[in-house]
Write a structure and sequence with these properties.
alpha/beta, 4 helices, 33% helix, globular
C-alpha cells in the first residue's frame, strides 16, 4: 500500500511511519518541520516539507497515496489561546481553508 502520513516527522507520526515501512508499505511523509524533526523520518520514506494548511492534492496525486494517516496538529494549548485563528487553520479548517 502507498500511504501518506501528515505529521510523520513528529514523535507519534514517526512511529506510525516505522510501522508502515516494517509491513512493506511505501510511505510519504508530509511535515512542515516546525515541531517534527527531519532525522525522525527514515530514509526509506519520502519526505515532503509542506505546510498542512496548504492544499495537498498535488502531493496526494503524485505519491499515489491509497491511504492517509492524518497526525499533523498544533497541540500547544498556549498557542491555541494566544492565536485561535492559527490553531483553527492547522487543526480545523481544510487545507487552504480560511485564507
Amino acid at each position: 500500500m502507498r500511504a501518506l502520513v501528515t505529521g510523520g516527522a513528529g514523535f507519534i507520526g514517526s512511529h506510525v511511519v516505522d510501522a508502515l515501512l516494517a509491513r512493506g508499505d511505501e510511505v510519504h511523509v508530509v511535515d512542515d518541520l516546525s515541531k517534527g524533526k527531519r532525522e525522525r523520518v527514515p530514509t526509506a520514506a519520502t519526505l515532503h516539507v509542506h505546510d498542512i494548511r496548504e492544499p495537498l492534492d498535488t502531493i496526494v496525486r503524485e505519491s499515489g497515496a491509497e491511504g492517509i494517516v492524518h497526525l499533523a496538529a498544533q497541540a500547544d494549548v498556549r498557542v491555541s489561546v494566544a492565536d485561535p485563528a492559527f490553531d483553527a487553520g492547522v487543526n480545523v479548517l481544510p487545507p487552504g481553508g480560511g485564507r
